[in-house]
Structure formats: C-alpha cells, structure tokens
Amino acid sequence: MVPPDRLASLIARGDAEGGVTPWDAIALFNAPEEQRKRFIEKFCPPLPANYAPLKSEPEGVSRAISEDADGWGRQWSREHWTEDNWRIYRWVYARQTEHLDRQAGVILNALRKSNYLNRTLVVFTSDHGDMNGAHRLEQKALPFENCMRVPFIMSYPGTIPAGQVSDRLVSNGLDLYPTLCDYAGIKLPPGRLGVSLRELAEGKTPKTWRDLVPVEFEYGWAIRTPTLTYALFNCGANPEMLVDREKDPDETVNFAPDPAHAATLKACREMMRGWAKHCGDAPLLEKMKEMFGA
Questions:
Q1: What is the 8-class DSSP label of residue 55?
Q2: Phi, psi angle pair for 143, to nearest 5°
Q3: Distance CA 294, CA 280 (A)
Q4: 251 and 245 in contact (C-beta within 8 Å)?
C-alpha cells in the first residue's frame, strides 16, 4: 500500500531520472521489457552472495516451503522466479524497511516534542527477519541468520551510553520481558528463562552469560552459539543442519552429513538436549530420543 500523498508525489515526478522512477515499480509486471530492465538495473539490489540453495540442505526446508497454505508460496517462487524477480523482491523489501524506519521516526519525534524522550526507554526490535532471496527463499520461519538475527536497539538518554554495540547472545523472545521489568522496578515472576539486558545496555560486564540462544520454529528447533548454528527438523530426511558462521558467514554449506564434523555435531546435539531438559521441552526431548537414543 502506497500512501496517497506519496503516490501523488511519485506520479508528479513522471519521467525524471532518465525515465525510470520508483513509481514504475507499481506497474512493473505490466511494463514494457525495456523499461522493466532499466528499473531493475537502476534501483534494485543485486542478488545476495548466498543466492544458491544450501549445500546438503535438509529436506525439512523443502517440506516447510511446500506446505504454504495457498499453493503460491515459497516453493513456487523458488522454482519459478527469475533473478530479476528476486531483485524486485529485494527492492520492495528495502522500501518496506525504509517505510518502517520513517514510522519509528514519527514516534520518536512525538516523544521529542512532548519532552518525554529523555525519560523514556525505547526498544526497537522484531520478531523475525526475512530470507530476502538468500538460498532462493523468502519470508520467515527457517533456521537461517536472515530469519533469526534481528535488530535489538535500546535507547535511554542519560542511562544507556550511545553508540555501543554488544556481541553477546540475546533473545528478544526471552529477554525483553525481564529487561522491561528491570527498568520499571517490577520484580520478575519466578520461572522465567530470559535475563535482563540492563547491564549489557548500560555498558557493564555481566559476571556470567549464556553460551547459546534457543530457537523454535514450525518445523523444528535450533540453537545458535557465537560461531555455530545447529538445527533439527521434525520432518524429512537429512533432518540436521550444522553451519559454521565464523568460517562460512553466508551459510552456504550444511556440515551435518560430513564425517569430518562429527565431533562438533555431537557437541551441538548435547547442547540442544541440555537446553531441552532445562526448559522441559518434551517434544524436542522425544524427537532427540527417537533419533539419537537416550
């Protein structure tokens, strides 16, 4: 949806900038081929470095994308979209991200005008990312960095130093609630698995910190350590995925079937089993027992 004022502005620009403007994206699929090509070359991002499907990809990935309800989902786009289609998709996603950024600015400007900004904790985060063309995939719900790694930005003038970055493993699903309780002076109810990020945000060094972040998705489970991602799908053949993000940051190869990585694979299984026991994840424990024994 393009806001009316934005649409009017784009129409008014007409054939500026060599006859191709962002307005053309709205009519791309009906545009002459030459105009379409000019738009793609001028405005659309290139294909990602990891555009090719993951080597030794678990069957669970195909199962996940083939079960989209309308039958016109991710499997269809993976099989039928051209490179130009993927570049247009990436352009649209970038424009959506810019629109979201503008809306965040609306809220921040309102806080500034009301003099609340200096006494308001602002947290910007997301529940998921988007594959955005990586491995010829789109949307979410898969155990890749594109989906799992999301923004987590905190601002509290006078309390949180500006400009600092932490590489500690955090989970917004687990840690956001304890963090907000901490800043609000509310005692955290017992049994919560997350931790407050207040010390990290304020530039302090916690005495201890987690060595993995758990992830649960519709078709399985995953853990993410500082350098590795291990996933276990609940369907399909070759259900394990092991990626070394330090050596292979684009996640191009699944090392799980490679005997040379057997020790690392075993260690990841044990880390996942330990987390499942810690949080009482019965379905995951049952799946691991079925595959690997007690």
A1: B
A2: -85, 50
A3: 15
A4: yes
Topology of 213-292 in CATH?
Arylsulfatase, C-terminal domain (3.30.1120)
Rounded Cα gap, residues 51 and 45, in angstroms: 13
Determine phi and psi for 242, rounding to 5 degrees: -130, 120
Beta strands 220-224 and 228-233 are antiparallel
Buried residues in 118-143 as b, exposed as e (16+ CB within 10 A): eeebebeeeeebbbbbbbbbbbbebb
Q: Residue 8 has which token pair?
A: 């009017």
Tracing tokens 């900038």 back to the chain, one arrives at 17
In the block, which residue shows the tokens 């070759």?
238
Q: What is the number of other CB atoms lying within 10 angstroms of the CB of residue 37?
A: 13
Token pair 């509310």: residue:
186
Q: Tens digits of per-residue pLDDT, 112-126?
A: 999 899 999 999 999
pTM attached to this predicted model: 0.87
